[in-house]
Amino acid sequence: MNEHLRTALTLAANGVPVLPLRAGKVPFGNCRTCARNTCGGRPNMKNPGPCTCPHPCHGWAAATTDPHVLSSPHWEAAWRQAAAVAYHPGGAGLTVVDLDNADAITWARASLPATRTVPTTRGEHWLYQGAMPSANAVRPGVDVKSLMSYARWLGHGTGHTTALPDVVRALLVKEPSPVRPTVQVVTVPALSGGGECRHRTPTYLDRGIAMAEQQITGAREAVHATVYRTFLAVLSTHGRCGCLTDAHMERLFTAAQTKGESVRHCTDAWTNARTTLGL
After folding, report:
1. Which of 26, 89, 188, 224 is deepest in the core (most CB within 10 A)?
2. Phi, psi of 270 (to 5 degrees)
3. Which residues of the chain, if any, have pLDDT below 70?
4. Whether 83 contacts 89, CB under 8 Å
5. Model's pTM, two decimal places?
6. What is the pLDDT of residue 200?
7. Region at 189 (left for phi over 0; alpha for psi -120 to 50; beta for the rest)
8. Which residues have CB under 8 Å from 237's CB, separation 6+?
9. What stretches of 154-273 adopt beta strand conformation (E)?
């Protein structure tokens, strides 16, 4: 008997659905009857089976525990060509956390509960008891293989298979997109002065406001103090000539609010800066 078939029958007898893999770790393609899933068989999300085709078609969905199917002529021919045995983790009530490199293994050891571990060519498979949806690249070098997926059979590994933890389930939960803070615009008393700036050009003023915005948004600490010092610098240069407009002040307030400053603090910082300069 073919070695791959012998392994497959042993696994099937223990309730693990199996299928043959070709070279390159890929399943056998669909037969002519099932080409492009025209049979409406097992890989069809809305109608997942069963397919009556006698061939090992449909990738993960071909996995079976039926020894008669596994030993049938079409399957036996596939086992002779097979490069490896695969199994459907979800069908066996398992989840495989596929760690593809050393960094992923380091992360798993620091973040996941210990469980049965199977060495792979480049990393490790961590097996947990319990099924869940599958997903690739849930984080760098980490795939989750369970329902509607397959994994290579690489041996029993070492350790005890523990229950699927919430931290693994959470890997499939996408983080919400960052929400830009709602910017509230307040009316700040206009500055008195002579209108057009007599000693600075409008271009210089616009560049100065842009630099002030960068100064605020680039602050990594002491944001309150940075906002006040920036307001003070802007007002010391342009506060007496009256060239600052509401649009300039809104830009500065917006930058401050994106760093978590409240409207009240922005207003207080602006007022305090004016007071300090005697404006």
Report:
1. 89
2. -65, -45
3. 40-51, 174-202
4. no
5. 0.62
6. 55
7. beta
8. 200, 208
9. 162-163
Name residue 195's amino acid. G
Q: What is the pLDDT of residue 244?
A: 76
Cα dihedral sign for 153, 11, 58, 137?
negative
Residues 6 or more apart whose CB falls under 8 angstroms from that of 151 comprise 86, 87, 89, 96, 98, 125, 145
Q: Is the peptide bond before 119 cis (omega within 30 degrees of 0)?
A: no
Residue with tokens 């307001």: 231
Q: What is the pLDDT of residues 167-190, one digit of tens each?
A: 999 998 765 545 454 444 444 444
Q: How far is the first Cα of the chain from the last one, in angstroms, to the nearest whole number?
A: 95
- CA pair distance 155, 111, nearest whole angstrom: 24
Q: 197-236 burial string, b = 16+ CB within 10 Å, else e?
A: beeeeeeebeebbeebbebbeebeeebeebbbbbbbebbe
